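To: structure subgroup
Subject: Chain for Friday's discussion

All,

I'm putting the inputs and outputs inline so they're searchable in the archive.
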Amino acid sequence: MLPKGTFVLGGAASGKSEWAERLLYSSNLNLHYLATGRILDDEINFRVKVHKQRRDARWNTLEEPLNLGPVLSKLSAYDSVLIDCATMWLSNQMMDEADLDVATGALLSALCDCAAPWVIVSNEVGHGIVPDNKISRTFREAQGRLNIALARQADLAVMIVAGLPQVLKGALP
C-alpha cells in the first residue's frame, strides 16, 4: 500500500524518477504522470523524450508547469500521481516572477487535498559549492525551503543515491 504522500529527493541523474515510477507501478492504481517541465531547449526536449520512452501505455501524461491544484483535485483514490518534478515547477514559478510563498502554499494545500496517493520528485541542490551569482543562490535557497516543506508534508521521504533508495522518513511499502 502506497503512503498518502511520498517525497523523492536526489541529485541530477541519480535515478530518482525511475525509482518513483517503479514505486507507483506496484500500486495497481491508475497511473498519472504530472509533468511540470517546459521545453525551452534541445537538452530539455531530449530529457522529456527519454522519460516518455521509459513509461509504457499504462501512464496518462498530464502537463502543467505552474498550477498543479486543478489537476490534482480531479484525481480519485483509484489513481496515483507522479509529479516530476518540483525543481522544474519552482524554476517555472521563478521565471514567471510568482510569489513563491503563495505558490508553495497552494501546492502544499493541493497535495493535502489530493484524493490520490502522490509521489513528488525533486532535486537536492544544496550539496555543491555556493553559486557565484545571485539568481543561482536565490534558486538554491528557494529549492532548499521547498524541499523541506515537501519532506515535512510527506509520509515517506526517500533520497536516491546511485539509483538506491535511502529512507529519510517513514518506511518503504
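Points worth raising on Friday:
The chain has a mean pLDDT of 95.
The beta strands are 5-10, 30-35, 59-63, 79-84, 118-123, 156-161, 164-169.

D.
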